[in-house]
Structures are given as C-alpha cells and as structure tokens.
Amino acid sequence: MGELLRVEHLRKVYEPATEAIGDLSFTMRAGELLCVVGPSGCGKTTLLKCLAGLLRPTGGVVEMHGAPVTGPSPAMAVVFQEYGRSLYPWLTVRGNVELPLRHKRLSRVERARLVADAVEAVGLAHVARSHPWQLSGGMQQRVAIARALAYEPDVLIMDEPFAAVDAQTRADLEDLVRDLHATRGISIVFVTHDVDEAVYLGERVLVLSGAPTRVRADLPVDLPPERDQRSTRALPRFTELRTQVYEQIQRAKRGQNVAP
Amino acid sequence: MRARLLYPVGLPFLLLVVWALATTSSTNRFFPGPAAILDAFGETWIGPAFVDDVLPSLSRLAIGIVAAIAVGVAAGTLIGLVRWLRELSEPLLEFFRAVPPPVLIPIAMLLLGITDTMKVVVIVSGAVWPILLNTVDGVRATDSVQSETAAAFRLTRWERLRFLVLPAASPRIMTGVRQGLSVALILMVISEMFASSAGLGYRIAYFQRNYLVAEMWSGILLLGLVGVLLAAVFGLVERRVLRWYHGIKEVNRG
Asked: CA-nearest residue of chain A to B155?
C-alpha cells in the first residue's frame, strides 16, 4: 500500500521561546494503525494538531497524499480527548454525527445511510435520539468516534481518546478501534501516554522524546493481527515489546536524546 | 403535595383578606377595597377600552420585544465574534447601557413625533442592552474544544453560527431576554404616560389625574397581570430552548 502521511523536519515553537517540537520526521502507510507514545508534556497534542491542520508548524512539512497540509482537511477526522467538550450538547447523538456531513455534497438518503451506519458501527443505534449528556463517558466517546467515521476520512486522528474513562470501558473501546481498523481498513494515528495501550493497539509504535520533541524509536509491533484483551496481553512477545517501549520512554524522561 | 397547591395561593389570599378588612374600617378614599377594585376592573377594561387601550399597548410591547431580541442578538453576535469591533464599541456600549432609558423619550418625541414608532423605539432602546451585552458575553465564551471541533470538521461559517455559536450562547441570551422583558414593560407604560391619548400608561395617568382611584388601581392590577403572563410565556419558551442546558445541570446534580 502507498504512503499516506509524510512528516518531514516538523518543528513548532510557541512564542516567545517554548520549543514544543524540535525536529520530527516519519511516514505512515495507508491502512496502518500507528500509535504515538511519549512522556507527558512531550508535545503529543501539538503534533496531532499540526497533523490535523489545526496548528501551523514553525518549520517543516506535513504531507497528505503528497500534498502539503495547510489547514483542516476533509481527508482527516479528529477524535479529541475531551469528549464532553467536543460533542455539542444541544444536538442529539444523530445530530452530532450528521453535523460535519451537512456541507458535503451528499443526497439526503446517502447522508442518512452514513449516519446510521456509523452509529451502528459503534453500537449506539439504540440511543441515536438521546443527547450526549444522557450517556456515560464511554458512550460519549463512541459518539465522537461515530462522528469521525461518518465523515469518511482517509485517516483517523485520535488524541488520548480513552484517557478519561474507566479501565473496563477503556478495554471495550480499544477493541472497538481494533475492530474498526480490521473491518474497515481505516488508517489511524492513535496518540496515547499509555504504553500497554500503544502496544496492544498498534501495528507500529512511535516513541517520542521529551520536549523539544524528536522521534526516539520507531518499533514495529509483530503481534498477530487478531488480538484480544486476555490472550494478547499474556503473550511473551507483548511483554517484551512493552518493556522495550517502556525503557525508551524512561530514557526519554531522563533526557538522553540519542539519535535512533 | 398539599404545600405545592396551598403555598402559592395561600399568601396572596391572606393579603387580600387583610386588605379587605383594613379598607372596610378605613375612610381613606385613596385605598379602595378589593371588591371595589374588582368592580372597577370589569367596568374599565372589559369592553371598548380593551380594544382602544390594552391591545395597542400590548402590540407595541410585542413588536418592541421582538425587535429588541432581533437587534440585540444580531449585533451582540457580530460584536462578540469580531475582536476589533468589540474593542471599538465596548466603551460606547457601557455608556449607552448606563443612560436611563426614560430620558430618551423627550428626544424620541422630538425626532419621531408622538407616534407608535416613537413608543416602539423607546421600548427597543431600553430592552436591547441587556440582550446585546449578554449575547456578546455568551458568544465570546464559546468553548475552545467545541470551536476546534468545528474547525477540524470544516464547518462552514453559517453552520458554525447556527449549530455552535448561537446554541452555545443561548443560556446567556435567555438571561438577557429575561432582563429585557421587564425593562420593556416599564418603558411601554412610561412612553404612554408622557404624551399620548391612548394606551395602558395613558389610562392609568388619566384616572389618577381625575381622582378615579379604584380605576387607577385596577390598571395597576392589569399591568401586574401582564407582567406575570409575560414571565409565564418566557418560562415556556426558555424551557424548550434550553432543554439541553437544564438537562446537563440535572445530570450533574444527580
């Protein structure tokens, strides 16, 4: 499969003199599930906003299908960490999912089909007429995922989406992401601070250094594509990979910025 | 269950009884009893006066309120969204809000004459400020993540206004409208007291000048009822528009 996303010498400085991202380069293939981990405060969210075209980088380029990203693109959809503030409480679940489709040139039937399909895919068909605040945190994040799915992006960008939900809900949501990736072949960039989550979900894990951020390690995850919470996490290879990522992050925290 | 029905009715009823008792033993003609006022109420307002005085007053009030909401929300949204416009107009808005609206009546009379338009303009010029200023605050306080979501999904300008900015500001807008309503009612009466030949305010001033005391009190009673009705209609609309807002508050409390 071809190259989807290319990040080259990305640099972001917040005025007056906070260098959030130092020099970041990586590429991503279409259909990949790429997890990005790093110590807290390492500019993960900054990276994500640069990818999504919400922030303008100070230097370097982000390219999507070979064309530079200069603003939010219809080929990308974002799932934010703060689901409670990202969904619109005055709209129903269906209204929230449908909103980004309004300006796409779609027939009414086609639009309704996309919305119904996305709501069904995240398992919320039975509450489509409810308002987000009537649902639990995990269900609200499912609404945000459905909204992104219905948008039909080439790449789904997720910013620590499950950081604010409880462990059981989190496991369910992780499996939902794996499942959507497997059945729909969507490319996903998944930003997280959780090492276990990165290894369990990803096909590749990008470990970032502390700020100013660089790529510290780029590890392929050679676990079988069929994963489940119990058996995958019990595999010796899972433990090995987790240890590797963990050590890289520990070193990043101590500031040993060795070129990979 | 008993308290729910008894309490709201109980105190007004008690006051009426005290009033009735106090007035039967009094000879002061400026304080007629409730029965006399009720008689006067029926004679004065049910009949041609309803068409000549009450309806014109209420229609001017309604037009004034609708215009104040339209102007206040439109201007408030624009000022709230455009930074330089806000910085430019803020001191001026503070000044206009500080001017007591009734002093505009003489000026409006000079400019527009003693017309219906003048009265509506006076109502709007007073009621618009709380609506406008609350709208500015509400629009400015739009949540940053909600705005970023709108940007990420490339919502159009119109969609942002219709589905993000206005609903997000609606609790503040409704607070402004609630304040604007009471100002509008006050100005409706005052605009008719100055120079007028019909209307509720005119009637009350007329009765007072001619020592028709019971009739005057009945007019005040009618104004109070109009105020209560206005609040009730507002409550209905508010509950509908802000259903989500009250729902969230309830969820957070429970």
From this structure: A100
Tens of pLDDT, residues B182-230? 999 999 999 888 777 888 999 999 998 998 888 898 999 999 999 999 9
Q: What domains are defined for chain B?
A: 33-253 (1.10.3720.10)
Torsion angle of C-alpha atoms B62, B63, B66, B69, degrees rounded to 10: -110
Of A72, A73, A102, the CB nearest to B159: A102
For residue B159, give the nearest of A78, A90, A103 by CB distance.
A103
Touching B: A residues 88-127, CB under 8 Å: 88-91, 99-100, 102-103
ipTM of the complex: 0.89
Which is nearest to A26 in space by CA: A47, A45, A40, A12?
Answer: A47
Q: What is the pLDDT of residues B95-124, one digit of tens each?
A: 888 888 888 888 888 888 888 899 999 999
- State pLDDT tens for residues A30-65: 999 999 998 877 788 888 899 999 998 898 899 998
CA distance A51 to A153: 13
Indicate the residue type of B219. Answer: G
CA of A178: how far to CAs of A175, A198, A234, in Å? 5, 12, 18
Q: Which of A148, A169, A164, A171 is nearest to A81 (CA)?
A: A164
**Is B152's CB within 8 Å of A102's CB?**
no
Q: Do B153 and A134 touch (CB under 8 A)?
A: no
pLDDT tens digits, one per residue of B141-166: 999 999 999 999 999 999 999 999 99
Angstrom distance (rounded) from CA B100 to CA A65:
62
Q: Please, are residues B230 and B185 in contact by the beta-carbon 8 Å criterion? A: yes
Q: Is B177 left (phi over 0), alpha (psi -120 to 50) or beta?
A: alpha
State the nearest Cα–Cα gap between A155 and chain B, in angstroms: 13
pLDDT higher than 80, residue B25:
no
Summarize the confidence of residues A250-257 as an average pLDDT. 72
Asked whether the beta carbons of residue A86 and residue B145 sit closer than 8 angstroms, the reply is: yes
Contacts A–B by Cβ distance under 8 A: 65
Domains located in chain A, CATH noted: 1-75+187-260 (3.40.50.300)
